[in-house]
Design goal:
3 domains; alpha/beta; FAD/NAD(P)-binding domain; 467 residues; Enolase-like, domain 1; 14 helices
Length: 467
């Protein structure tokens, strides 16, 4: 019989869970992962990775359509939706297999099934109604993730009204599409289907798209997407979805006035609900916060001794890299590693892979002002950068926000080509607590898009060279 006693048991094999287990094994702890469905979690199988594969296909299609602007000829450019989806699923399958290999390599035991806390460090695992194992762990980490939030009047049916899962494997290419919610998930799908030719309308309940981004960046993205043909209904609520034979009519309301929009398909992207049901939280004495997520301290400890929570189930921001980082923090704290730092949410970068891309880290300009800080704001447009012009990507902006008194980098916000790759430069700067002087004295290579990062810093203090 397989060993059932462990130092660390992780419930959930997503980007938080498998990383935590591997780090535990590296530190000499006997570790196990309990996963009910697929290693890699939502991120790898139904989120981050497959959506990026879809968006890459859309990007290539877009470039082929505009080949003439590069002196190239590409006639009768079309796409095969089924093959685009097949490529996306193939990428996910390959990486999921890689996670299994990494766990095996690090001698992490994997139990296939649904884990439930029993209290006292005990955990039972079941699959298809049958017990798989009873486990005992000195430390149990909950990494059960979250799922798409569902409202009664916006109930997905998998055919006409999609969640992200159906949107990832569409059986048809809709001629018209309504996206409810303009966060990262909604905007990425809106961008994908719009690029492939669908008439896309995005409905957002607040008065700006991408609500958590800097106002200036949000406005830039909206203007760019409107040029691409997208429509936006802001400060608007979807009251009802009426299904027809092969269409959906959305009843939307703004300022007390209602109108109806009929489309082929609807995607609901209105947030997530944590997977906290039936995992034995009450039995273990684990408490939830006022939003229904598992309450944790800076080191991911819950209200129950020996029980921890990481990733989406422990609250916003619901990002894979945040989950992975929490997993490392949690395990290193368990192992009593010196110098472990609690999670600093101001250093978590956010990326949205739409066209144009969006990336940010730290405070927005509005947040800094609301805190009463004396700030300096720098900007540099893509149109002033040689590499951007050479790439044929002149639309974009890099924006930086500094504390005028201390020189601290408070926040950085970008929109444009490849900004999701560049944002980590500012992420490192924040981690190292660099000042504006440090960034000014850093030598950026030419010609690169990263030069705009330098110029934005210079601009904040009246020293920009190329703008």
């Amino acid at each position: 019989m397989a060993d059932t006693n462990f130092d660390v048991i992780v419930v959930g094999g997503g980007p938080g869970g498998y990383v935590a287990a591997i780090r535990a094994a590296q530190l000499g702890l006997k570790a196990a992962v309990v996963e009910k469905e697929h290693l890699g979690g939502i991120c790898l199988n139904w989120g981050c990775i497959p959506t990026k594969a879809l968006l890459r296909s859309a990007e290539v299609f877009h470039n082929m359509q505009h080949a003439a602007s590069f002196g190239l000829t590409a006639k009768d450019v079309t796409f095969d939706l089924q093959k685009i989806v097949e490529r996306s699923r193939g990428v996910s399958k390959q990486l999921a297999g890689g996670v299994g290999h990494l766990l095996k390599k690090n001698k992490v035991a994997v139990f296939d099934g649904f884990g439930k806390l029993l209290g006292g460090g005990k955990l039972t695992v079941e699959a298809e109604g049958k017990k798989v194992a009873d486990l005992q762990g000195k430390h149990i980490i909950l990494a059960t993730g979250a799922r798409a939030k569902v409202f009664p009047n916006l109930q997905p049916d998998g055919k006409l009204i999609w969640t992200y899962k159906e949107a990832l494997v569409p059986d048809v290419m809709p001629k018209s599409l309504l996206v409810i919610g303009s966060g990262a998930i909604g905007i990425e799908f809106a961008s994908f289907f719009n690029t492939l030719g669908a008439e896309v309308t995005v409905v957002e309940v607040v008065d700006k798209i991408m609500p958590f981004e800097d106002d200036e960046i949000s406005a830039f993205v909206q203007k760019s997407m409107e040029k691409q043909g997208m429509k936006f209904k802001l400060g608007t609520m979807v009251k009802e979805l009426k299904k027809g034979k092969d269409t959906v009519t959305a009843v939307i309301e703004k300022d007390g006035k209602t109108e109806e929009i009929t489309v082929d398909r609807v995607i609901t992207a209105v947030g997530v609900t944590p997977n906290t049901e039936n995992i034995g939280l009450d039995a273990a004495g684990v408490k939830l916060d006022d939003r229904g997520f598992i309450a944790i301290d800076d080191y991911c400890q819950t209200s129950a001794k020996g029980v921890y929570a990481i990733g989406d189930v422990a609250g916003a921001p619901c990002l894979a890299h945040k989950a992975s980082h929490e997993g490392v923090i949690c395990v290193e704290k368990i192992a009593d590693i010196k110098g472990v730092h609690g999670l600093d949410r101001s250093r978590i970068p956010a990326c949205t892979y739409c066209n144009p891309q969006v990336a940010s880290v730290g405070m927005t300009e509005k947040m800094a002002k609301e805190k009463g800080l004396d700030i300096k704001v720098g900007r540099f447009p893509f149109m002033g950068n040689g590499k951007a012009i050479a790439l044929g990507e002149p639309e974009g902006l890099v924006k930086t926000i500094f504390d005028n008194k201390t020189g601290e980098l408070l926040g950085a916000h970008m929109v444009g080509a490849e900004v999701t790759e560049m944002i980590q430069g500012y992420g490192i700067a924040k981690t190292l607590e660099t000042t504006e002087e440090d960034l000014m004295h850093t030598i950026f290579p030419h010609p690169t898009l990263s030069e705009m990062m330098h110029e934005s810093v210079l601009d904040a203090f009246g020293r920009a060279i190329h703008f």
